Amino acid sequence: MSHLELHGIAKRYGSVTALDGVDLAVAGGTLLAVLGPSGCGKTTLLRCVAGFERLDAGEVSVDGRAVAGPGLHLPPERRQIVTVPQEGALFPHLSVRRNIEYGLTRAERRTDRVAEVLALVGLTGYGDRMPHHLSGGQQQRVAVARAMAPRPSLILLDEPFSALDAGLRADLRRDVRAALQADHATGILVTHDQSEALSIADQVAVMRDGRVLQCAPAAEVYRKPADPWVAAFVGEALFLPARSTPQTATVSTALGPVQVDTLPPGDGDLVIMARPEQIRVTSAPAAVSATVVGHDFHGHDATLSLRLDDGTQVTARVPGHALPETTVVGLYVEGVCRAYHDHDRAHRPNLVTA
Amino acid sequence: MPIKVPQTILTLVAGALLLAACGSDPGSDTGSDSAATSSGGDKTITVYSGRSESLVKPLLERFTQQTGIAVEARYAATAAMASQLLEEGERSPADVFFAQDAGALGAVAKKGMLAPLSDDLVNQVPEIYRAKSKEWVGVTARSRVLVYNPGQVTEDKLPASVFDLTKPEWKGKVGVAPTNASFQAFVTAIVVQHGEQKAKDFLAGLKANEPEIRDGNGPILEEVDSGKLAVGLINHYYLGELSKERGTTPDALTAKLHFFPGGDTGALVNVAGVGVLKKAAQDPDVQAFVTYLLSADAQQYFAEQTFEYPLVAGVTPPAGVPALAELQAPAVDLNDLDQLEATIGLIQESGLVP
Amino acid sequence: MTAHPEATAADSSKTMAAARYAGAMSARPKRPLLLALSAVAVAVALIPVVYLAVRTAQAGWAAIVEDLGTVRVARLAVHTLGLAVVVTAGCLVLGVGAAVLVVRTDLPGRRGFAVLAALPLAVPTYIAAFAWRSTVDGFAGFWAAALVLTLCSYPYVFLPVAAALTKADPAQEEVSRSLGRTAWQTLTGVTLRQIRPALTGGGLLVALYVLSDFGAVSILRTDTFTRAIFVAFDLGFDRTGALVLAAALVVITMLILAGEEAGRRKDARYAPLGGTRRMAAPFHLARLRRPAVFALAAVAALAIGVPAVSLAHRMLQGVSRPGAWTEVAAAAGNSLWLSAAGAAFTMLLALPLGLLNAKAPGRASRLLDRLGYLGHALPGLVIGLSLVSFGVSFAYPLYQTAWLLALGYAALFLPLGVAAVAGAAAHAPPVLDEVARSLGRGPLTVFRTLTLPLTLPGIGAGAALVFLTCMKELPATLLLRPTGVDTLATELWTNTTVAAYAAAAPYAALLVLLSSLPTWLLTAHTGILTRKSAP
Predict the structure, then answer these.
(1) Are residues A266 and A168 in the same domain?
(2) C75-125 pLDDT tens trace
(3) What are the boundaries of each domain within chain B?
(4) Contact C437 A77 (CB under 8 A)
């Protein structure tokens, strides 16, 4: 149950800035997901925390004790911060048991800690197997068990599920989270997969270009993204131009009046962000009507492409029944949306827009 | 599992080697402390031998038996040994240089590395077979000869002079070993006896006659004996060596020797000799060794085992060849054979060597 | 890399790690300690080259220009490069041909042929050349030397190519075949491109070996730099002339290395090889079965049969016999322990350099690696003499001890060791180190518990190769060995110089025999022998 704090972490490679003043805090016993596109600096962040890279500026502290900072660079082996790399990286010449024992002291090896962590990851009885006799998912479970075994201050998971197929990934994700929680371990998970980040983590930090744009609980990141880019990165987003109305919590859009949590300070054209599941489709007449122009079937649900009478295109997530094209439906927006100044998204032309 | 065996061996090999490398001194058990052998009268001497180990070793054993003086011997080709001595300079561990030919002794003497020998030693050997400066003394003598296959060349067709070999009738029939020190001494002798132009003309004529180039005298003799070559320029004692290998006498071989008559340069008599390095000049053990080489015992050994001519009076000459005194050797002073550089240039220019 | 099942897990993880590390510039460990140790290793191995530079400079520019600017040197350069090109091409054809037949077809007796194809490594060129010359009338000259050198050195190509073919991913080949390419087009267009690093690495070793070889060119009278260098020493002990020629040889070596470097850059665009759990389906030789068996048997007969028969013939023909069996045993013992010392020292120097190459690739490691090759192309005589000079002047206590000889072997054979270590290091990718460090283990513990156990088989294979090359080495051994210590190679030399061929034969036979064991280990290490037979 240790907590980790990062202050103003910076790391440059030649003229390239990989980390540009990162501040983060991870509370003891929780899991933080660092989410970002490739090249955003998230792996560098992990490597700096682990001690594989030296900081150019800033400080890393665990339970208030600095492990890296100006003039200080504890080597990785003295940080009590353990990594689980993407490919597991089990030691191929050691059995599962010996792999897990690797980080334990002699005294700890005599306890039943190995059996304990094996049970936590659901591999009881696998101690004498060699790594090459395990499936990819099992190898990854062992890697997690190996990291948990010495009860480190912090466990760093570097895209640990990305090499696995989808079904396996969900199971493993759930089990790993449960194991970490059962062991009260503190962890950071790096991923570029937003659903993974949102589903597993207590907190999600979204990174881009070496900066943390937002760090908040998963639901908050999804519902109240700090800016349009984050909004689009963590899930599908609709952006609609909006005008303020006399009521402070309501704006007017092509989809009619929409509730927003707050308005951005200052002047400028407004835009609101809605999730496709907030766009509700009714067969009953509504304030706004639209024509179905296409749909994508996903099994559990479907997304409809709709054209409003004024030509605006929107996407709605609906339960798995498809509506034929040219069907005319009514639309309204459910729940609270997020409002931004339009110029905040002007430089992101590739975002999903209305 | 058979699969694992080589892998395990390789691991063990690598482990053992690394241990060996990190651990003990690999030279401790056999590495000789050469410096210690150079001090006087410690019943140990170091001999650098340009003569073959199989010839010299039995002799050294007899010497040690008779005198109780241990001999540390290094063996290499005379040229390489001379190069090594010249490279070592004053710090050479060697006490004695026992060389295959006078030229190498001359080259080392020229660098001032050899000490003059005492008069009573050098006086045992005829004046023409020792250095004027007394820095080396001949131990045995050998004559240049033309070896021929009687099946291909009858005795009456044999050339009277080595210079006749440039005549058209010898085209493609002569085996020579131009990289051999004996050949080189012979060319030097032409320069000394007849001047540089004659040597140049001879080499050019020889080259134009498309000689069969070999890398040593041994192969020439073998090919003449088997009839692959008609004639070849070699030293006389090679016949004895080959007959010894075949388990017969020189007379029983097909190949016969032709000693050029009338003081022809082709019948040059050269010596194998010995010199003492300066630092060992006063060492009684070294004196004893040189004395032994000139003793009847050693001289007899050379005559019987190497078929060379003994240089000390009263020793039975080798069988099957004319006596040294009967040879009509050219009037060439061996001391003049150290003018090598010009000769090398001539041989290189001739294109006989790379 | 091997096809052993236990290695595949490591292989695939390595591939992913490699891809990951290649992509992210974030992860480029600098490893100052490794760099420093590597620099020391290269400095030690370059002692002879430094000596050569100093001595050549002493000769004065006028002399150098005069010595080098001649038709003779131009001719030597043409012959030397020509021989290197012809032999390298020959070795590539033989080595790749044998490797493809042994690894990728349903050739009968493929394990036996694999061992036979590697065995010429145990035959020194001077024995092979001598055997050929005494077997075939008038066997001499450029093409004779090219034949003997090719037969003796094609295993340098065969072994790495066979290993690469064993582990190469068959998926690309299958795609090629399914796109309508013939087996032959697929082999040349896809497979050989896949294993190009193995090809160029093996070819480079052959080319440099040809530059340094003395045995074949002197016995078969081919005018190369090496022969000219030996002749210059022989003719009036002309050390300066010889050293100037050796310096020219170093320049040629640099040219070859630069050429290989340029070729390697082009290679960079190929994706790194991955491990595979799947074997390529063997190609059915059908009508080609007999010709293939015949071809491999013929190569083996020429490379091993001719020397063996010739040695036996010499032994039966002569009456000379080696001294007591104790002498033979002593020589064998000396060969073994001196070569072991040489291999150990070479691998000790190769270890940091190979690890640096594998774990911190970059300009510095590349440069150090290339520098290590310089000594490999120098004749043993030059290395030997330079270390004589070095030992006498700067390291007298080491002079004429096994230490200095081991140093000579290291200067000559360092690249063989470095290549092996770098290959072995792939089994211990940096990500394993990092995990171990994060689990609280210090660098030394990580090295002891992970890097060493994972890389030892590969390092052992390198040691075996260096060991057997040391066994065969003659000129440097003669100059640097402890006084009074005879080895199999020196005894062989000593007896042949006095025509005591029968006495020499047991030494030669023992030399080849003792070299066969490391050769077998090397063959086994490629994974060819353990690969499942054609279904």
Answers:
(1) no
(2) 888 999 999 999 999 999 999 999 989 888 888 888 889 889 998 988 888
(3) 40-140+270-322, 142-268+339-350
(4) yes
Nearest to B236 by CA among B191, B275, B187, B186: B186
Q: What is the overall mean pLDDT for chain B?
A: 84
Q: Is C501 on the interface with B (CB under 8 A)?
A: yes
Contact yes or no for C440 and A77 at CB 8 A: yes
Q: Are residues A179 and A290 in the same domain?
A: no
Domains assigned to chain C = 46-525 (1.10.3720.10)
Q: Which residue has the tokens 């197929």?
A: A165
Give backbone dihedrals phi and psi of B264, rounded to 5 degrees, phi first. Answer: -65, 145
Is beta strand B136-148 parallel, antiparallel or unpaired with respect to B309-310?
antiparallel
Q: What is the pLDDT of residue C10?
A: 36
State the CATH number of the domain containing residue A180: 3.40.50.300
Chain C residues close to A103, C-beta within 8 Å: 439-441
Give the count of domains, chain A: 2
Closest CA to A141 of A106, A108, A107, A177: A177
Cβ contacts (< 8 Å) between C453 and chain A: which residues? 93
The tens digit of pLDDT for each residue in C176-193 reads 777 777 777 888 878 888
Q: What's the CATH number for B142-268+339-350?
A: 3.40.190.10
Superfamily covering domain B40-140+270-322: Periplasmic binding protein-like II (3.40.190.10)
Nearest chain A residue to C30 by CA: give it: A53
Radius of gyration of chain B (CA): 23
Can you give the residue range of the structural domain that contains A265?
A: 229-346
Separation of first and last alpha carbons in chain C: 23
B interface test, pick of C234, C386, C516 with most B CB neighbours within 10 Å? C234
Give this complex's ipTM: 0.81
Contact yes or no for C449 and A102 at CB 8 A: yes
User: In angstroms, rounded to a whole number, what is the distance separating the alpha carbons of residues A228 and A338?
Assistant: 9
Q: Specify the amino acid at residue B199.
A: A
Task: Measure in Å the smallest separation between the Cα of C6 and chain A Cα atoms.
Answer: 6
Mutant choice from A83, A138, A188 vs C, greatest count of C C-beta within 10 A: A83
pLDDT band at B13 (very low <50, low <70, confident <90, very high): low
Mean pLDDT confidence for C488-515:
82
Statement to judge: residues A253 and A340 lie in one domain:
yes
Residue C11: pLDDT band by 50, 70, 90 thresholds? very low
The arrangement of strands across the sheet holding A203-208 comes to A81-84, A154-158, A187-191, A31-35, A203-208, A211-217
**A166 and A275 within one domain:** no
Lowest mean per-residue pLDDT among C170-174, C301-305, C411-415: C170-174
Instruction: Identify the closest residue of chain C to B239 by CA–CA distance.
Output: C499
B154 touches C at CB < 8 Å: no
Mutate to test the interface with B, among C498, C522, C526 (most CBs of B within 10 A): C498
pLDDT bin (cut points 50, 70, 90) of residue B182 is confident
